Amino acid sequence: MLVDPRSDPHRLPVWDPHTNRNDIMPIISPVFPCKNIRADASASTLRDMIYHFKCGYEQCKLIKVNNNWRDLFMPYKFFEEYIRYVHIDLTADTEQKLELWKKIGESELLVLISKIEAGRGQLICHICPTEHLSSDSCSFFIGLSTKKLIVGRAIPEQVPSDVINEFMRRMENHKRAGMEVQVGCLNQTYMKSRTWGRSAMPLIQ
């Protein structure tokens, strides 16, 4: 930061590095009062950004040699990057309900990711950056990877069922008439084909 956040005489909340020391990736707004616009960032978000910054840096070094900028702007092949995915599908019978359902899903998704990454399985979550939205449904995709294998500790390939069940319970508490939620565990083969129907989606029990 160029300057430290100043206190607000109107007593509006101002971001403080001492009070908000648990913020993982603080990005402080340049307007007053100062706020962390990425207070919801997770450890996986930070790891993901660092990884792509490094990839971009390496690509720029190659561009300096071969003067080819095309590779820098290649689309990110999210559905080919991971072996296993979690698919959350939200449906509603009106656009207004779907908009509300989507906001609830986004909020609960952050809780789900924190629960997955806090588990003993050493799983890391990566949310698909592309929005998948239609007139009656909204889908979220989470790519799963693992941290380095710790000797003597097995890393599970799937998200623990109790974590998914807790997520479903939380969503059920928010659900209104005409709203539905499904959670599925998909592998890379499914993601590449993208031909499954909603009823055929393999659910996590």
UniProtKB/TrEMBL annotation:
<comment type="similarity">
    <text>Belongs to the poly(A) polymerase family.</text>
</comment>
<dbReference type="GO" id="GO:0005524">
    <property type="term" value="F:ATP binding"/>
</dbReference>
<dbReference type="InterPro" id="IPR007012">
    <property type="entry name" value="PolA_pol_cen_dom"/>
</dbReference>
<dbReference type="InterPro" id="IPR011068">
    <property type="entry name" value="NuclTrfase_I-like_C"/>
</dbReference>
<dbReference type="Pfam" id="PF04928">
    <property type="entry name" value="PAP_central"/>
</dbReference>
<protein>
    <recommendedName>
        <fullName>polynucleotide adenylyltransferase</fullName>
        <ecNumber>2.7.7.19</ecNumber>
    </recommendedName>
</protein>
<keyword id="KW-0547">Nucleotide-binding</keyword>
<dbReference type="GO" id="GO:0006397">
    <property type="term" value="P:mRNA processing"/>
</dbReference>
<keyword id="KW-0808">Transferase</keyword>
<keyword id="KW-0067">ATP-binding</keyword>
<dbReference type="GO" id="GO:0005634">
    <property type="term" value="C:nucleus"/>
</dbReference>
<dbReference type="GO" id="GO:0003723">
    <property type="term" value="F:RNA binding"/>
</dbReference>
<keyword id="KW-0507">mRNA processing</keyword>
<dbReference type="GO" id="GO:0031123">
    <property type="term" value="P:RNA 3'-end processing"/>
</dbReference>
<feature type="domain" description="Poly(A) polymerase central">
    <location>
        <begin position="4"/>
        <end position="74"/>
    </location>
</feature>
<dbReference type="GO" id="GO:1990817">
    <property type="term" value="F:poly(A) RNA polymerase activity"/>
</dbReference>
<keyword id="KW-0539">Nucleus</keyword>
